[in-house]
Design a protein that fits this description.
By secondary structure, the chain is mainly α. The protein is 66% helix and 0% strand.
Length: 266
């Protein structure tokens, strides 16, 4: 029993599963006529999941793929369970691909590896007696099964940890996208305000030109400047439509400066 104490926290989890749900040890008989891998479907996939669950290489501890809820679809959870089984059976590399080596190993385990009897010629030498082989105790079998379940649970925990890291990374990327959207909205608003200020300045300058013209003053230079300002304003509006905020702001500011110069000419 000292071996059970060394299993640790993961062993406690697996022991809980063992005593709460029971451990299936009866081997499932399957007829594998093809290699199996991720993406394949069929009743042979379901039988493979049932076999893995029955031998402690659980596909899932609950929900889809768990005992009694095996499916016909070969996905990542099935692959990980196959990898654990291959590792335990000494199949290398343990890739999760249930190919010819794995099928041969399964057949040997399912049928029981037997050695054909050998005949010995008569001899005067007394027969050699071999001490009886003591079968492994039920405790040793349970410990081996628990270790297999621990390996499966550890693989599942690693997968959940990777999923959590991916989710956190996606969340950070989402925050960055929101910041970029806010920056773009701010630049667009700034460009619109600059165009509006330039338009107001041009309108005021034209009013001043009209008043000066009525007073008989020379307004030709001022009018030339305002016409140039209006052209720059049109270019600023086109830049705004093209979402080139910096260009729109720069052109609008130049147009506003020309409107101020026009008033100075009067």
């Amino acid at each position: 029993m000292s071996q059970i104490k060394n299993v640790g926290l993961a062993g406690v989890l697996a022991l809980s599963l063992f005593f709460m749900g029971g451990v299936a040890t009866a081997a499932v008989k399957c007829d594998f006529t093809r290699d199996l891998e991720v993406g394949m479907e069929g009743e042979d996939v379901r039988c493979l999941q049932q076999y893995l669950n029955s031998q402690g290489f659980v596909v899932a501890t609950e929900g889809v793929g768990s005992v009694g809820k095996e499916t016909t679809q070969f996905k990542d959870l099935t692959k990980k369970a196959v990898m654990s089984w291959q590792t335990a059976q000494g199949i290398t590399p343990a890739t999760g691909y249930f190919g010819s080596l794995s099928r041969a190993k399964y057949a040997a385990l399912a049928n029981g590896a037997t050695t054909p009897p050998t005949t010995t010629p008569p001899t005067t030498t007394p027969p050699v007696t071999t001490p009886p082989v003591t079968p492994p105790s039920s405790t040793d079998t349970e410990i081996s099964l628990l270790k297999q379940q621990i390996a499966s649970l550890t693989a599942r925990l690693d997968e959940l940890e990777r999923d959590l890291e991916d989710a956190l990374e996606d969340s950070d990327n989402g925050d960055e996208d929101e910041d970029e959207d806010e920056d773009e909205d701010g630049e667009e608003t700034e460009a619109e305000d600059a165009i509006e200020d330039a338009q107001d300045a041009i309108d005021e300058a034209w009013e001043a030109v009209d008043e000066a013209d009525e007073d008989g003053e020379d307004t030709d230079d001022a009018e030339d400047l305002l016409e140039e300002a209006e052209e720059l304003l049109e270019e600023a509006e086109e830049a705004l439509d093209d979402e080139d905020w910096d260009e729109a702001i720069e052109l609008a500011e130049e147009a506003e400066d020309l409107a101020g110069d026009a008033e100075d000419e009067l």
